[in-house]
Amino acid sequence: xxxxxxxxxxxxxxxxxxxxxxxxxxxxxxxxxxxxxxxxxxxxxxxxxxxxxxxxxxxxxxxxxxxxxxxxxxxxxxxxxxxxxxxxxxxxxxxxxxxxxxxxxxxxxxxxxxxxxxxxxxxxxxxxxxxxxxxxxxxxxxxxxxxxxxxxxxxxxxxxxxxxxxxxxxxxxxxxxxxxxxxxxxxxxxxxxxxxxxxxxxxxxxxxxxxxxxxxxxxxxxxxxxxxxxxxxxxxxxxxxxxxxxxxxxxxxxxxxxxxxxxxxxxxxxxxxxxxxxxxxxxxxxxxxxxxxxxxxxxxxxxxxxxxxxxxxxxxxxxxxxxxxxxx
Amino acid sequence: xxxxxxxxxxxxxxxxxxxxxxxxxxxxxxxxxxxxxxxxxxxxxxxxxxxxxxxxxxxxxxxxxxxxxxxxxxxxxxxxxxxxxxxxxxxxxxxxxxxxxxxxxxxxxxxxxxxxxxxxxxxxxxxxxxxxxxxxxxxxxxxxxxxxxxxxxxxxxxxxxxxxxxxxxxxxxxxxxxxxxxxxxxxxxxxxxxxxxxxxxxxxxxxxxxxxxxxxxxxxxxxxxxxxxxxxxxxxxxxxxxxxxxxxxxxxxxxxxxxxxxxxxxxxxxxxxxxxxxxxxxxxxxxxxxxxxxxxxxxxxxxxxxxxxxxxxxxxxxxxxxxxxxxxxxxxxxxxxx
Lengths: 328, 338
Prior knowledge:
The structure holds two protein chains of two kinds.
Chain A: E1 5-9, H1 14-27, E2 32-35, E3 47-49, H2 58-68, E4 71-76, H3 87-107, E5 112-118, H4 145-163, E6 168-174, E7 194-198, E8 204-205, H5 210-223, E9 227-231, E10 237-238, H6 239-245, E11 249-253, H7 255-267, H8 290-296, H9 304-315, H10 323-326
Parallel strand pairs in A: 1-2, 1-4, 2-3, 4-5, 5-6, 6-9, 7-11
Antiparallel strand pairs in A: 8-10
Helix pairs in contact in A: 1-5, 2-3, 3-4
Chain B: H1 16-41, H2 47-57, H3 64-78, H4 90-107, E1 111-113, E2 124-128, H5 136-148, E3 155-159, H6 161-164, H7 169-175, E4 179-180, H8 183-191, E5 195-198, H9 203-206, H10 223-231, E6 235-241, E7 251-252, H11 254-260, E8 266-267, E9 287-290, H12 307-331
Parallel strand pairs in B: 1-9, 2-5, 2-6, 3-4, 3-5
Antiparallel strand pairs in B: 6-9, 7-8
Helix pairs in contact in B: 2-3, 4-5, 8-10, 10-12
């Protein structure tokens, strides 16, 4: 193990808090610094610096904290997993916050930064190959602010990796998380009985169990490989099959209508995501996990279907709504 | 599987309503037990059983849960719960198989020749001419391989993006085993030792006008040769005769195709004149002929970067396919009877 400390941003996020817990168990609380507005659970004994990445002077505070705590590597997990109505705030956190973090890390002589990203950055498109590899060029922009912020965070990471050869950068692109404890706009599709689906479209989707996600991140922190890694389960599942496994009643909606309806629902505060997200249930964005298998020595232990079933069991513990247990 | 516990049928204790209530409770307990036993066995009821059960359960009122369970039982009678990495759904393919077999054996009376040229195991790249407006030829090639080959091999056809992205057709194709045509997918399948079918003519082949029938278009830029060289898989040239006549395209209305996202909008004697009925393909007589495999072992994977060699092999394969087609056409006396 290296001498310096490991700092974790977004330490109270879903993935961040789980990682912090595991890391505290592995290397003890004193080797870790949580950089977050909220303090981590006291029992972990983790050091804490209250830093708000959305503040204009956060880079100064970060620089001080990284120097004083003798931070050697940073795990950057401060990202939103669902679209925010306050898009400006999300932009300040995800894009500007990442920029500030990298600037401070480079100035403080941090040796490695791990960035939490997601496979959604590839964008859902009909032109996507069946398996997206890490070499795939990312879209230069997106109509979705949520996605644009993620893309900008990746651009900052790539730019700093290029300009500071001493700074190691690992980008982990996680497939959509699905499993116990996960609540995102994506899992919420499965919280209703009647689910609208696009007429004539049935993309393959990848669902990643959070245990697998944590394991992959730990592997990366341990081995410090540079570069981009897809963290994805090996077996995707067709969306329609996933819905029927969850005993949902899919209702086919013509896609031109779906974009308008989703936008209308989002604007009126009912919907979970704006219309642009309809692309993600229309086209596939299936990532190839071969590089992570090869270089991280990690592969998912849950298939997409098993992750889905774990989520359904978590949502319906008595099994009344899941065909897996009720009728199978 | 654990042995289900038996709920004893106790004699009813009281008359009238109580009795009915007690019986109802017992019936519910038995139904629960049955459901659990089925779950343990891992099976799902067929659509008829599911429907009968739904009707029975409707006596105690309709609920979303019952409707959803019925719907998912029906769905999984025709779909598997697991698909492969490209989305191939074995049970779905099996469901459609009678229709495919009807087309193969009755409608087009496909005659397959030279099936012995296909490898008994391991990778192989079947290279065929493309025609017929809709990708029936790919389907028939994979059926020929499945039904005539002694090892009953499956052949994964590479489907053009225009088909693989079309609403309704796209999920149908991927669930029945077709894979989007791109080099990465082809290499991935060949490395797994599968038989892969490819149409190098692409859109230029499948969408060619009727007057150009059986004249092969350019074989792309030889991408299929590079794939074969990289993986060391033999190329098996294949000629399909009969598919050109199923939807004789006498004209194109591309102004119609553009808003629909199609590279061409076919006009045939029956389509769009007869509406959906015009989509019924004509019952020509088909033959599918496989030639001797072209082995590329002597070259090695690095020669995939040699454009002159790639083009030469590509042209060789193209002329083999053209020769087989011409030979067959010369022997053919009737489009409908062969």
